[in-house]
Amino acid sequence: MENVITVEHPLIQHKLSYIRDKNTSSKDFRELVEEVAMLMAYEVTRDFPVEETVVETPMGPAQTKVIAGKSVAVIPILRAGLGMTDGILKIVPNAKVGHIGLYRDHDTLEAVQYYVKVPSDLGYREVIVVDPMLATGGSAVSAVSILKEMGAHSIRLMCLIAVPEGIRKFHESHPDVKIYTASVDSHLDENGYIFPGLGDAGDRLFGTK
Q: In the list 67, 78, 89, 174, which could disulfide-bond 101, CB 3.0-4.6 Å?
């Protein structure tokens, strides 16, 4: 699928198997989600622009490269996106973090906004939106629309699992935004949940039901 990158590194796929397992405890689930997000961050940042610079090593000057110009903002969609944030920050520790609070109405399956707090300089940042599941696509569409309205124009979406229905809906609204996922699963069930998926990511992260 165009503008969808499935990150198939063996370490990620191995850890994703345990994330899916219904017998994995909340503690292990949280740790695994953070680890997979950290590993996926390498791929999400792969095409960040770089520029030449010179540093002084103990032996003398060295021509090296640094990320050019823009800094990074990580924007988790509350609440499940929080589980991925620390993993990315281990790779990009100077990133600013914003939060977008959305919940899915169980009757309409539409995203309802309840909180937005993001860096004021989004237009100068590479923005990584994180949410473990791209299911119906409603939350991701709403979150990216909010960020674009607030000045962001270089945006990537990172999720653990997506489905074709969610990908299609997301790219109908945001065809310019790349989706990075560890898996594209089969379909949505009659309740709008990913099958086979991993259950409710928020409940499994935080031990709620």
A: 78
DSSP-derived 3-state class of residue 64: strand
Write out pLDDT tens, residues 142-188. 999 999 999 999 999 999 999 999 999 999 999 999 999 999 999 99
- Write down the mean pLDDT value for the chain: 92
Q: Please enumerate in sequence order all residues whose Cβ is within 8 A of that of 120, keeping only pairs 6 or more positions apart, or say none.
A: none
| Residues forming beta bridges with residue 103, ordered by sequence position | 112
**Which DSSP state fits 22?**
T
Torsion, Cα 164 167 168 169, to 10 degrees, reads 120
What are the domain boundaries of the chain?
Answer: 4-49+62-206
What is the average per-residue pLDDT within 69-98?
91
The helix or strand, by DSSP H or E, that contains position 48, with its residue range, turns out to be none
- What's the CA gap between 153 and 164, in Å, rounded? 24
CA within 13 Å, CB half, 2: 6
Fold for the domain defined by 4-49+62-206:
Rossmann fold (3.40.50)
Contacts of 198 (CB under 8 A, 6+ apart): 19, 20, 132, 133, 160, 161, 204
- Give the model confidence (pLDDT) of 30-58 as tens digits: 999 999 999 999 999 988 888 899 999 99
What's the angle, vertex CA 171, arms to CA 198 and CA 176, rounded to 5?
120
